[in-house]
Amino acid sequence: MFVGDGIGKTQIKGNRNVVDGWTTFRSATVAVVGGGFIAKGITFENFAGPSKHQAVALRSNSDLSAFYQCSFVAYQDTLYVHSLRQFYRDCDVYGTIDFIFGNAAVVFQNCNLYARKPNSNQRNIFTAQGREDPNQNTGISILNCKVEAASDLIPVLSSFRTYLGRPWKLYSRTIFIRSFIGQLVDPVGWLEWNGTFALDTLYYGEYMNRGPGSNTTGRVNWPGYRVINSSTEASQFTVEGFLEGSQWLNSTGIPFFSGLG
């Protein structure tokens, strides 16, 4: 367990990055492997900058890991939700390209996701989920969160396009549920990875979101994209439905709600 004095007060910083010879996996400022890891009140940062490409602030391979009132700050590939079951509550995540990525079963609840100002030739993508097999019970669930522009992006918002996600792997799965989506998100919502790759096999869903960027009428027309209208379908990606949270989160002391909220 890591317990800090609060976001911005307790900070762990590094600058490993792909341009300087590290792999994405090894670039993490902090990497968590052991099961049941908990962090509270800490900023994890990789300050390599937008020109250094992949530069991870935190990587978690920890099953049943939970992060409460933490901040994750970088540019490309900020938060590597690598694998297994993970929960993030009241956290802030800042980045540019694919800045929440990996193949965990992960729920973000009551979090703030902030797109930053990228380099002039770049665009912002909030997620790049890496599910490789349709039998894997993995995915990124964004539940009751805020999806907005960071302070450095706001003045130049019209100069950059921003998307909810793109498919890193063939069965990529990402869901936005009852979240506020700001005006920064492009009306099409989602971005291709490479041509038609994964557009038939991915699962991208939006359920009862709000805000100026939440209008789904102009969204992509991919076989794997859907506007979710069923609470039963959406409930598969809640803390209880996706993580069986009642079996382990109570013992962490971190607040959570089990259902759709």
TrEMBL record:
**Keywords assigned by UniProt, alphabetized:** Aspartyl esterase, Cell wall, Hydrolase, Secreted
Pfam families listed in its UniProt record? Pectinesterase (PF01095)
Principal location class: secreted
Top class in the EC scheme: hydrolase
**Stored InterPro entries:** Pectin_lyas_fold, Pectin_lyase_fold/virulence, Pectinesterase_Asp_AS, Pectinesterase_cat
Is the keyword RNA-binding in the record? no
Task: Give the top-rank taxon of the lineage listed in the UniProt record for this protein.
Answer: Eukaryota
Domain Pectinesterase catalytic intervals: 1-245
Quote the EC number: 3.1.1.11
Catalytic positions are: 98
Its localization reads: Secreted, Cell wall
Q: Pathway of this protein?
A: Glycan metabolism; pectin degradation; 2-dehydro-3-deoxy-D-gluconate from pectin: step 1/5
* Chain segments annotated as transmembrane: none
Gene Ontology biological process terms in this record = cell wall modification; pectin catabolic process
Q: Name one GO molecular function term.
A: pectinesterase activity
Entry keyword annotation includes Secreted: yes
Q: Which reaction does it catalyse?
A: [(1->4)-alpha-D-galacturonosyl methyl ester](n) + n H2O = [(1->4)-alpha-D-galacturonosyl](n) + n methanol + n H(+)
Membership in a protein family: In the C-terminal section; belongs to the pectinesterase family.
Listed name of the protein: Pectinesterase
**Gene expressing this chain:** LOC111015311
